[in-house]
Amino acid sequence: MLSHEKNHLTFNQQRDSYAWMSQRAWVEIDLAALSHNVRQLVKLLSPSTQLMAVVKADAYGHGAIVVAQTALESGASWLGVATVPEGIQLREAGIEAPILILGATHTPEQIQAIARWKLQPTLTSPKQALVFSNTLEDIKYDSPLPVHIKLDTGMSRLGTNWQEAAEFVQLVQRLPHLAIKSIYSHLATADSPDPTVMKQQQQRFETAIAQIRALGIEPPCLHLANSAATLSNRSSHYDIVRAGLAIYGLYPAVHLDSSIDLKPVMQVKARVTQVKTIAPGTGVSYSHHFVAPQELRLAVVGIGYADGIPRNLSNKMQVLIRGQRVPQIGAITMDQLMLDISALPADVQEGEVVTLLGTEGEEEISAEDWAKQLNTISWEILCSFKHRLPRVTLGNN
Ligand SMILES: *Cc1c(COP(=O)(O)O)cnc(C)c1O
């Protein structure tokens, strides 16, 4: 068990315990929203297309085990992870669904772990395929290991160049101990409103598959789509779609916002730890980047950049208290940040819950809002919350 899993208490356990009352900050994971998103995606797919829930990077910071379990219960049938330890973590939790390792694996130790834990690797080069076959021979692996052939059709990341696909597939097919389970590629620009590059990648994928078929090899399974392509391009669905961001309830791009109804799964919350009044001219936090223009009421909140609140949001972000937006002031520090709560009723006090990301009443602050302010993408925001913040699951059984 990883140390952070001990923090993965259910809402009821947390609410009823002293630990909950004294919790300074936490991440709420709404499993009902996750389940809703997975069901929405499944509805979009034809009955012959399966959904792979991409749960790499601890399920984009949401908690891999609970997300994988909920996604499988809600209609996903595959899981995607980046690394061997991520796959083992799911197997150790008793999850039996097929798990594709999207990242590269090379060493005999990794290959033995893949075989032992029944994980399914991505093959990207002849050299790697040979190491796999030889290692499985050495350990006298007795059944063929399902492997997935990755083609580079324009992402310029992992994969055999699409022009060499047929040759590579032929080689892997002839190697002992390996059974080709799927052939796949990854799109670089599926979230762009301009589909030109996506279409070109898809055309290259189709050409490679046609060349493989011309050798008399029928690929058992094809997949290409990430969340953006799943939402925007039905012809990219093939046999499996690999959805990450969308299952977490975020849209990969503004122009896809109305494609299906998604609900954000993650909220980030913390408590007010002190309230005070400061005089006009008083500096706030390190370097006094904020100086009170008039008397104001200040709230200290127990969350900071060591929890994953980006310090670059200092003096720029807002949070929600009692359904109202209030400005954050001064530099965000390692474990704490300050708010100007002058506009709120006078009875706001220590212990009050602050929503940093999430919804209160009519107001919402989303990972997209932060991403825009920080000139990054919502994927990075979701992945940025540290394990010091316990993940509190809501809406489960
Ligand atoms: C991360 C990843 C995905 C999921 O991407 P989203 O945009 O989050 O849906 C799909 N395929 C591969 C190969 C990935 O690495």
TrEMBL record:
An example Gene Ontology biological process: D-alanine biosynthetic process
Top-tier EC class: isomerase
Residue positions of the active site: 56, 286
Function according to Swiss-Prot or TrEMBL: Catalyzes the interconversion of L-alanine and D-alanine. May also act on other amino acids.
Name this polypeptide is given: Alanine racemase
Keyword Isomerase: yes
Record EC number: 5.1.1.1
Catalytic activity line of the entry: L-alanine = D-alanine
Keyword line: Isomerase, Pyridoxal phosphate
UniProt GO MF annotations: alanine racemase activity; pyridoxal phosphate binding
Chain ranges of the Alanine racemase C-terminal domain: 265-394
Chain positions recorded as substrate binding sites: 157, 334
Any one GO CC term of the record: cytosol
